[in-house]
Design a protein that fits this description.
Strand content: 15-25%
Helix content: 40-55%
Structural class: alpha+beta
Shape: elongated
Number of strands: 24
Distance between the termini: 64 Å
Radius of gyration: 38 Å
Length: 852
């Protein structure tokens, strides 16, 4: 038979199966042939009865012919499978309690695993939704030994603008290359801040990535020229839908940012969210627009680390070749990009820096760095819960198979093979797994969205594309099939292993039937106890870690402190009026009844990390040592209740024109002056964001505080007076300690700001909530591991109850005889309880080595 002929026969059989011919229709053709043959013999002179008998003898065995006809019209394997599924559905319908418990257990296990895997897929496994993402590579510095200067709020500031411009001019490995930087900008003209995400892109970002506009056009390389006026603004698809309702006439409208109007020229495609996984941009402008939006004469050519650089490899180029090329052009790049006033001690390291090329097809992500390891660990924990659920179901199926022994024995006696019976039982299990997977998929969609909402904070919302892809679908299908095999195969094989004669004899005895099968269920129960012990212990450890962080003394007191970020850029004050205006503003807030202390700062601990700089003590040469730099105003240490150990705090006389002063912490003293009192000593720092090297006198020593996060060791911090910084712009963060409730102090501060000038924009956040957000990962691990631990414990208890209940039911006659012979209720109770204790002890014995 040719392939074409075979395909036609198979198609015809499949159509016959799908058409579902009834037995009457299948026998109609045979009856027609018999009647025609009978009529022919009647015409030959036979009587009707004789003709019918001869026709039947000639036609042959009608039953056999009907079976052959049916086999020719359908695919036997598919028909058999279909009948197995129908039979399995009827069997599951007869046991609604068992079916409900099985489906719910599987749905919880499969749903939890799929939800966590969906997050892992979105954060780590999925490539960027751009053209040929595997061709993208990031150009970054191999090490940061020569780095000094200012760091922006960007997630991945790897190069300065001058380094980026030199890379763009000298590189030959990439067909297209761009730099990008993302930050929050305020759209509100005054009052409450309304932040959106701004993507600044240098180079031909959209054509390099192959991004097409949904409407209008996207800006190009030619529009990104230093000194540009007001370049065209591109808006993200989500922002377009949210703010303009998807209106078709959005092109040509204007948006005002920092007193500059920008015309909207295009809308990006729906699937493009930028280069950072976990964040999505709302607006996009060329790099040349940064000074316009920031409005503080920002020096793009200074030692400010802004951008991440990504390029598309030229055809035929490999990542190794691109790395060799970028390393080859590094000397020329860094020599040309050396800023003025760069610290002499760091010049050699800066000029010796090397560029490297690394894969960038999956983008960059702080969310990935912060949560990837935790998500993989949670997936392992969820898998253990699923194993416990499978062990539970296997135990239930063993008990259920025992109740169906007579049915299986009868089917074996009638000629059913063992493989055929195993397939039937596995089909029932597959139906359970499919039902659990379907419900679990719905549950996973809900859980994954809840997890994203859990990871999001008001100040840092998380954006993840949770659309299904082949990896998530394949994972869910694979888990469903694996669970079917895990909880169904062993019971199916065990149920069909017993000889029919033995089943009949055991049924006749009726004394202790089924006890020989208890070792399987006891082993499963011990495994459940062991896994439950591991999960509960893990949950306790995660909870203890969270508790340690929550009770940790960070060196300051966050309770009762409100943070307010104010910007008065729209007042168009001259720079020399910035500091007097801030002092007036603080004085007005300090006058609010219930306010205990007020201070202004450029950075808030645990939220705004200003970055490190190189510090040399007076008379010291060489490489220097790293320390964090934080600009804080008078009253800062009092507001956060940071204890002053020696010297003095900042006061109003520490302003521009006065000698530069600094306050340092204990870690600074330990590293730079061997723990001695540093008050009166002098140090200097490297160039920062265009400022020359600066010397400071230490006037105070304060206790150590956490700076970047609660998990870090105490690091050296030098606090300087922002009033002495010529680059301190029109705004800052105000810390307010008050006895008033948060809503009350917010209303009072907003009233004061409106009285001063309605154009002042402000955003509020509790300092305590900022501290809480830094332990979000630990809280997530403690919460989910605790939930999984309790779920595992519940499943283990249900499993233990099930095996004991089945054991007692199987031994009813034995127990009755024991009591008839004089056994007391207490001894029977202890016999059953002892079995539970032995199973639990066996599980603990297995689980303890897994913990340690």
């Amino acid at each position: 038979m040719t392939i074409l002929s075979w395909f036609r026969v198979f198609t015809a059989k499949l159509q016959g199966l799908l058409r579902g011919r009834t037995p009457e229709e299948e026998s109609g053709e045979i009856e027609t042939h018999l009647s025609l043959l009978t009529e022919r013999y009647v015409r030959q002179g036979m009587s009707p009865d004789e003709a019918a008998a001869v026709a039947r003898r000639q036609f042959g065995n009608i039953t056999s012919l009907r079976e052959r006809q049916r086999d020719m019209q359908i695919v036997p394997e598919l028909d058999s499978m279909w009948r197995d599924m129908q039979y399995g559905v009827r069997q599951l319908q007869r046991a609604p309690v068992f079916t409900t418990m099985a489906v719910m257990s599987l749905a919880l296990g499969i749903g939890a695993n799929t939800a966590i895997f969906q997050l892992i897929d979105a954060v780590r496994l999925r490539m960027l939704p751009v053209k040929a993402p595997h061709e993208l590579a990031e150009v970054r510095m191999e090490n940061t030994r020569g780095v000094t200067g200012g760091v922006t709020s960007a997630s991945y500031p790897t190069v300065t603008n001058r380094i980026w411009e030199q890379i763009r001019e000298r590189q030959q490995a990439f067909s297209g290359i761009f730099a990008w930087y993302m930050e929050d900008v305020n759209l509100a003209p005054g009052g409450e801040v309304r932040n959106v995400r701004m993507l600044y892109a240098g180079g031909d970002i959209f054509s390099t990535l192959g991004v097409q506009p949904a409407m209008g056009r996207l800006f190009t390389l030619q529009e990104d020229q230093m000194g540009c006026g007001a370049p065209g603004l591109v808006i993200g698809h989500g922002f377009w839908q949210r703010e303009y309702g998807g209106s078709a006439d959005v092109i040509g409208r204007t948006l005002t940012l920092s007193n500059h109007s920008f015309n909207i020229i295009g809308v990006t495609s729906a699937n493009f969210f930028g280069m950072e996984v976990g964040r999505s941009f709302d607006l996009a402008l060329p790099v040349c627009a940064i000074p316009l939006v920031r409005g503080n004469k920002i020096a793009l050519d200074g030692p400010m680390w802004w951008f991440t650089v990504i390029g598309r490899l030229k055809p035929g180029w490999t990542l190794e070749q691109a790395t060799a090329h970028t390393r080859g052009i590094s000397p020329g790049v860094f020599e040309a990009a050396l800023p003025a006033n760069y610290p002499a001690a760091r010049v050699k390291d800066f000029l010796g820096s090397k560029l490297n090329a690394i894969p960038a097809g999956s983008g960059v992500s702080q969310l990935r760095e912060r949560y990837e390891q935790a998500l993989w660990l949670l997936l392992a924990i969820a898998a253990m819960v699923l194993l416990i659920a499978c062990a539970n179901l296997a135990s239930l199926l063993l008990a259920r198979a025992s109740s169906r022994e007579r049915e299986i024995a009868v089917r074996q006696s009638l000629g059913a093979s063992r493989g055929r019976l195993v397939r039937q039982l596995l089909t029932e299990n597959l139906l359970l797994a499919l039902a659990g997977a379907a419900l679990g998929a719905w549950l996973a969609r809900t859980l994954s969205r809840l997890l994203v909402a859990y990871l999001s904070t008001g100040a840092d919302p998380v954006f993840l594309d949770l659309a299904l892809d082949w990896r998530v679908v394949g994972f869910a299908a694979g888990v469903a099939l694996l669970t079917c095999l895990l909880f169904g195969l062993a019971p199916a094989i065990r149920a069909t292993r017993t000889e029919p004669s033995a089943v009949m004899k055991a049924g006749g005895r009726g004394m202790t039937a089924g006890r020989e099968r208890f070792p399987w269920r006891r082993a499963l129960m011990a495994a459940q106890v062991a896994l439950s012990l591991v999960l509960v212990t893990s949950a306790l450890l995660f909870s203890r870690s969270l508790g340690n962080l929550m009770t940790l003394d960070p060196g300051f007191r966050s309770e009762g402190v409100l943070t307010a970020r104010v910007v008065f850029q729209r007042r168009n004050l001259p720079p020399e009026r910035y500091q007097p205006f801030k002092e007036e503003l603080l004085a007005r807030i300090r006058g609010i009844q219930g306010v205990q202390a007020v201070a202004m700062t450029q950075a808030i601990p645990l939220r705004d990390f200003e970055g490190g700089t190189t510090v040399w003590m007076e008379g010291e040469q060489g490489q220097g040592q790293r320390a964090s730099l934080s600009r804080v105003g008078p009253g800062y240490f009092q507001t956060l209740e940071i204890r002053l150990l020696a010297g003095r705090e900042f006061h109003a006389r520490d302003r521009a024109g006065a000698p530069n002063v600094a306050i340092v912490n204990e870690a600074f003293a330990r590293r730079f002056v061997a723990g001695a009192n540093p008050v009166g000593r002098r140090f200097r720092i490297g160039a920062m964001a265009g400022s020359p090297e600066t010397a400071y006198e230490i006037v105070g020593l304060v206790r150590d505080t956490k700076n970047a996060n609660l998990r870090e060791e105490f690091t050296p911090i030098a606090y300087t007076a922002p009033a002495q910084d010529p680059n301190w712009g029109p705004g800052g963060r105000i810390l307010i300690r008050s006895r008033l409730p948060e809503s009350g102090i917010v209303a009072q501060v907003r009233r004061v700001l409106n009285e001063i000038n309605p154009a002042i924009t402000v955003s509020f956040q509790s300092f305590h909530s900022i501290v809480e957000s830094t332990i979000l990962r630990e809280r997530l691990m403690a919460t989910l591991s605790g939930f999984f631990g309790l779920l595992a414990l519940l499943l283990g208890c249900i499993g233990l109850y099930g095996i004991l209940s089945y054991s007692v039911a199987s031994r009813t006659n034995e127990i009755g005889i024991r009591m008839a012979l004089g056994a007391e209720r207490r001894s029977v109770f202890w016999m059953i309880l002892r079995e539970a204790l032995l199973l639990t002890a066996a599980g603990v014995a297995v689980g303890l080595p897994m913990i340690f």
